Structures are given as C-alpha cells and as structure tokens.
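Job type: complex structure
Entries:
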Amino acid sequence: VTARELGIRPLAGLAEVREGDQLGRLVAGVASPAADEIVVLSQKVVSKSEGRLRKLADVRPGERAIELAASMGKDPALIELILSESREVVRAERDVLITETNQGRVCANAGIDSSNLDAGWVALLPLDADASARRIRAEIAGASGSSPAVIVADSFGRAWRLGQTDIAIGCAGIAPIDDWRGRRDQRGRELAATAIAVADEIAAAADLSRSKDSGVPGAVVAGLGHLVNADDGPGAQALRRPVADDLFR
Amino acid sequence: VTARELGIRPLAGLAEVREGDQLGRLVAGVASPAADEIVVLSQKVVSKSEGRLRKLADVRPGERAIELAASMGKDPALIELILSESREVVRAERDVLITETNQGRVCANAGIDSSNLDAGWVALLPLDADASARRIRAEIAGASGSSPAVIVADSFGRAWRLGQTDIAIGCAGIAPIDDWRGRRDQRGRELAATAIAVADEIAAAADLSRSKDSGVPGAVVAGLGHLVNADDGPGAQALRRPVADDLFR
C-alpha cells in the first residue's frame, strides 16, 4: 500500500467516565471499532478512569515547591504535584516548568492540567500510559471480539515552535515508529533518515476531530490497518529519545 | 462545531513536476479540492516546481563547510548548501546539524534532503513557503474557481522524541494556531494554555495517507471547513517561537 484514504470519526456519546470504569468496554459500546482501526483516547479520560485526579487543597507543598512556586508565580500545590511526578527538572524559567516525568517523558508541568475538571482539581498522567493502552485494548477485545490498536494522546509543546500538537504517550497494537531507514525510495536509492513517528501523527490527526470544549474524549481512525498489529508492541516509550542522544537537555 | 468527521484522500495521479509548473493548476486538475477543504503538499514537490533543486557536484564548498564536514563525516558540498541556507548554527554535534534557516525556521540540515531525487541532487526548501502556499492557492482558484486552504508540509525532528512528524512550513487560507486561551472549557472555566498548532496537526494527518516511496506529493483533507478562511492569513511563520521566548537555543 503506498497511498490510502483515511477516515477519522469522533468518539461521541461516551458517558462521564469515573474511576474504575472499564474505558475499553465503554468505547466498544459507543464506537464498535473494527480490528483494523485505531482508537485514540485523550490522556484526560484515561487518567479519570484510573483515579489520577487530585484535589489541590489536599496537597501539602514541600519547601522546594514553595520556593519554586514563588519564583514562578504559580500555585505551590501544583508545583508540589509536578515535582512529585518528576525525576528531573529540565528547565524552570519564567513561567515554564519542563521536567522529565517519573515515566521518562520530557514535557511541561509533568503533563498535569486542570481543563475540563471541577474547580480545584487537576489530572495527573497515567502511571504507565503504555500499560493503559494495553489494558484498554484488551477491554475492547473482551467486549467486542476485535482488537483495534489503541493510542493514549496528550498535547505537547515543542521547542522552537508555538502551539501544541497531540502526541502519543501510550500505545498498543501499533509500532509507534514506521522506520524507512535502509528501505528504498521511488528511485531505488536508500533512504537515509526517515523514521516516521506515526503514533504521534495519528494522535495529532485525531485531535483535529474534536474541540477542547466538546467533552469528546477521542476518535477512531480508519484506513491505517497496515499499521495495526496483533502484538501490542513496544509502546510509546519507544518514542523517547535516549538522554545520551539528546542535544537539548 | 465541537466534533466532526474527517476524510483524507491522497493526491494521486499528479505527473512528475518540473521547474516552472503551476503546481496549483496541476492539483486542481487531479483532485478538484472544494472551497472548504485543505490541500497539503510536500515541500519536495513545491521545491521542484520552484527550481530549488541543486546538483552537489556544482557546489564549491568554502573553508568553514570543509572543516565542519570533516568533523561530522559529511559531504562538504551538502554542508556548504546547509550553511548558505542558514543564518545561525544552533547545534553541530555528532552527525546532527541544526540551524536556523534564512527564513527563520530551526530544523536539521536546513531542511535539505535527497530522497526521491536523481543521484547527486538535493532539494532546498522553498525561499518563502508561505508565499508558495499563497501562490498555489491562487493557482487553484484560477483553475477551478474554489479557494481551498493550502499547507506546505515538511518532516521535522523533535527534541526529546525519536522519529519525525510532518509540520506546516507554509500555509494560506488557514490560521495556523487555533487559540483557545481565554475561551472556556466544558465547565465554563477559562482555558489557560491551549493554543493548538492545527496547521502542524493537519500536515501530520496528511502524511499518514502516503508512503515515502509512493511519489504521492500530498493529500486533500475534508471536514475542517471551519478552519478555512477567505483571507490567506499570517502563514506558518506565525508558528515560529520568538528567539526571546525560546529556552532551547
């Protein structure tokens, strides 16, 4: 297959998700994704189902969080959560706090945000978004008999560029990188440096089908069956650039 | 509109593009994009139509290029082209050369690559990809009477993450950032930091519909008519993070 038509439909009709809900069963109920389709779910809805919401008033900020919060003009409770979810601070300048999370992802605020939640509450990232994707995939299979690939998506800011795009923070049933290195181009020449982060591109594509105020927690992508595998695969952690190869730390 | 179905169809059937070809007319001939659709074209095909191919054997590397090429194990002619297309070297470590191009974009190798070209040839980026997008849009309108939005896409490596995703290096008829800051979420709370780089997400989505060896130079995206404007708008240069706000230079 060298060119294909894609369809992306929003995951509408999902009821409000609560801790302990089997998200995969709920998805199968409203969307009936086929075995060659890809289900993309927002980090927020996955975090809700996994009980990863926190009330800021319940957080006791430590000394480091209080200091950092004062220098950045932020809520000490939020900073405490960000630090406790992180193993390294990469940048803390002006109002930007970029860390490496305990799961090894470099991003702003350890991925913690408050949009579309009750006042005073924030959502932490899933503890292991690849495990989340595998579990949701298994739940969809259990409910429907078909095993679409599953991607957990979150918005991501970029060095050098304004605005966020959605990326894959977890996945199952899809190799997150489509590696063309060593393969040949149309002229038969070896491709030198083409490794496409398809899981990130799919997360971005799915994001276009919903608005930030819609309450729609994801989408189903059709037309990429060649990327869907029976094996769960390495997960989105394979998209992390090893620290030793990272020129921007 | 809060959720919408998207369709992406590859731009198949385009003849080999040569310098001076009116790319917009060729696109209108094979795809008939509607006024509420978005045409995504690869940088490579735009560069071809604009005569931005260079033969490495014709390039006379200067002293700096020869030194840098030796230390990086690269072709001095290629390095000379990269330097002449750039106004600043951001990183030159191991085999990675990241520069700010003369147009103000930070990327590897000044966006120069050789895939899907005759041996010994490389393609430079368009001199002004926003101007390219505006021109192509006008050509489509001239040929078909409808003015879809146009995006010029190129692959882009990311700090911290492996693999490339396509982004928008030029656009016309679409605001590249969908800015939700100050707007309200589902709970009526103000959204603090949600500015979505929709042009980049659309470029990424379109990339999924074609393979790197397909010769398919782009795609048409349907279902995002709410993002298409009569005005050409600020172009993809609005996606560049100002140097003063950049923590990773």
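Summary: The mean pLDDT of chain B is 91. Chain B touches chain A through 75 residues (CB under 8 Å).
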